[in-house]
Amino acid sequence: MPKILILTGDAAETLEVFYPYHRLQEAGYEVHIGAPEKRKLQFVVHDFVDGFDTYTEKPGHTWPADIAFADVDPADYDAIVVPGGRAPEYIRNNEDAKRIVRYFFEKNEPVAATCHGPLLLAAAGVLPGRTSSAYPELAVDVETAGGVFENGGAVIDGNLVTARAWPDNGTWMGAFLKALDAAGVRAAA
């Protein structure tokens, strides 16, 4: 059974972790959660409130990580997913998280990222010349890292499928499932 690794940590957006986690399982993939440490993670819920300039944040669900980044052999996985929330702000400083991302870009294997997830891609140095969506306020981060920002819910650039945030989950994962199929990463029947 093909395996997919979700790279995340504390303060990840609950919907951006759980939707791909369960959707990919439903499609027949084995899905693991990778984090800085193998322990229970605390996710958050971001919502949009009229009159606020940005999103609000509340505690969300907890979920155990299956594997620490340092213990990940990227060759054991067929694709990666990088959810948003605030987790990418600190996992982008983790050398093993960047190592894992670089592996998938070097091998041209499927990568999905949403919301603040492209911060990890930028830190790993894989965005130059690539088109990426992200939370719109991160356009400057994508462009500073040498990428081209596109404000879309399922932006595809080769092996990379990106989106803005959890309201794009359906179109984002739909495009990623097609990218997995096109790459020959087919789930169990």
Automatic annotation (TrEMBL):
PANTHER family the record matches: DJ-1 PROTEIN, DJ-1_THIJ_PFPI FAMILY PROTEIN
InterPro entries per record: C56_PfpI-like, Class_I_gatase-like, DJ-1/PfpI
Gene3D superfamilies: 3.40.50.880
NCBIfam families referenced in this protein's UniProt entry, alphabetically: PfpI
Entries under CDD domains matching the protein: GATase1_PfpI_1
Protein name: DJ-1/PfpI family protein
Domain of life of the native organism: Bacteria
A Pfam family assignment: DJ-1_PfpI
